[in-house]
Specification:
- Helix content is 55%, strand content 15%.
- The relative contact order is 0.10.
- A four-stranded mixed beta sheet has the order 1-2-3-4, with helices on both faces.
- By secondary structure, the chain is an alpha+beta fold.
- The protein has six helices and four strands; from the N terminus they run αααβαββαβα.
- The protein has two domains: 46 residues; 132 residues.
Length: 190
């Protein structure tokens, strides 16, 4: 009987020690690969080979150039930006919801990127242009695009979706209409 108790106690100690060691090792591994730690971030960068890359594919760049050419015709100083993080131009309201709710909402859209952002002469987001080219995998992007659309809608930022083979004349007309609407909305606000 004593041997059984001693064996059980030793077994429990071994199990506890093993579990504790496993927890410590898992925590060490987590800390070593925690991407929120700036020391790790620098190490990860040093371990990788980095190179510059063209941020816009050839099809999307044609849309960029068309819009870029059209903007000066408006007589105002709109600017066209490419590959902009939504967290750069959409924020959560500090007067609505809890801090945890705001953090969760921001984390769902903050790191998503839009293809093009047009800002007005005052730096306000006027219009987002999303290009859905021939290489755009709709099956993978529907859910992501739905989140982006809803965040833009709730923030009051207009969205223009341009699809492959869309006639530039057509999307320039829609672009003009949406920018006019942006201007009239802000003129009424002042």
């Amino acid at each position: 009987m004593v041997e059984l108790l001693i064996g059980s106690a030793l077994g429990a100690m071994v199990a506890y020690t093993s579990l504790r060691l496993s927890t410590v090792l898992r925590l060490q591994r987590y800390r070593r690969y925690d991407v929120s730690n700036t020391d790790n971030q620098l190490r990860f960068i040093e371990e990788a080979k980095l190179r510059p890359a063209i941020p816009i594919n050839k099809e999307a760049f044609k849309v960029f150039r068309t819009i870029e050419t059209e903007l000066p015709n408006r007589g105002t100083r709109y600017r066209l930006l490419a590959e902009v993080s939504m967290g750069a131009f959409i924020k959560t309201s500090e007067h609505h919801g809890t801090a945890a709710q705001r953090k969760r909402a921001y984390s769902t859209f903050g790191s998503k990127r839009v293809d093009f952002l047009i800002i007005d002469p005052y730096g306000r987001p006027a219009l987002v242009v999303e290009y859905h080219g021939s290489g755009h995998d709709r099956a993978k992007s529907v859910a992501r695009d739905t989140v982006k659309k809803r965040a833009l809608q709730k923030a009051g930022v207009e969205l223009l979706e341009v699809y492959a083979h869309t006639d530039p004349y057509h999307y320039v007309q829609v672009l003009t209409h949406l920018l006019d609407r942006h201007e009239s909305r802000h003129q009424r606000a002042h």
